[in-house]
Amino acid sequence: QIKGFVFDLDGVITDTSVYHSIAWHQLADKLGVTWTKTLEDGLKGISRMDSLEMILKAGNKENDYTQEEKVALATEKNDNYVNEIMKMTPANILPGIKPFLDELRSNGYLISLASASKNGPTVLDKLALTDYFPEIVDPATLSKGKPDPEIYVKGAELLNLKPEECIGVEDAAAGVQAINAANETSIGIGDPTILSEADINFKETAEMTLDAIKQAL
Ligand code: BG6
Ligand code: MG
Hints:
With 217 residues, the protein is of the alpha/beta class. It is built from nine helices and six strands; from the N terminus they run E-H-H-H-H-H-E-H-E-H-E-H-E-E-H. Helix 1 packs antiparallel against helix 4. The radius of gyration is 17 Å and the shape is globular.
C-alpha cells in the first residue's frame, strides 16, 4: 500500500531543468564541447560535478583540467544558474503541482524531496513550497548520485516508510532508474520514450492526480 511520495524537484515541481540546461550549454560552448540533445537529456538528474565530467567526456577533455579547475568551472555554471533561480516566483510552479501536493496532503500521504540539487531548498523557498516538504534528502550526504538508488532509499527512510510504500516522481531517465532500483513505484513525467522504464508515465505534470495514478496501477 502506498503511503508516501518522494519527489524530484528540477523538471517535476518547476521547470528549473531548463535553467540547468542553459547554464551547462553555455559552459559546454566555452569549453568547445558540442551540445547535443543526447547530452542534454543525459545530464538531467546528474549531480553538479558528475554533470561536468559528463560534458568533458563528451568532448574527450576529461584529462585537460585539474580538479581545482573543474571545481571553478562547476562554480561558474552554478553562479549562472543561481542568477536565474533568484528571479523565480510561485508562478514558476509547473501546472497541476500545487493542487496535487494539496491532494496528497489532504489524503494523508507523506512527502519528501529527493533532488540532486544543492539549490533545492532555495528553489522551494522561491516557489513558496517549503512547507510541503518537511523532509529533504541532503545531496551532500550521498555517496553516489542518480541513477544509484541511494537518494530514493533515503527519501523513504526520512518518512519512516518502506520503499514499497513509496512512489517516486521523476523527469529524468537516471532518476527513474534510481527509483526502480530503490524498489519504489516510479512515475516518469515527460517524453515516454526517454522514460520508458517508468511504471507510470505522464506527458505533463498537469496529468498527475491521485485518480490517474490509481487507474494506472
Ligand atoms: C538535478 C538536476 O536536480 O540537480 C541537474 O536535474 C543538476 O541538472 C543537479 O545538475 C545538481 O544541481 P546543483 O544545483 O546542485 O548544481
Ligand atoms: Mg529532474
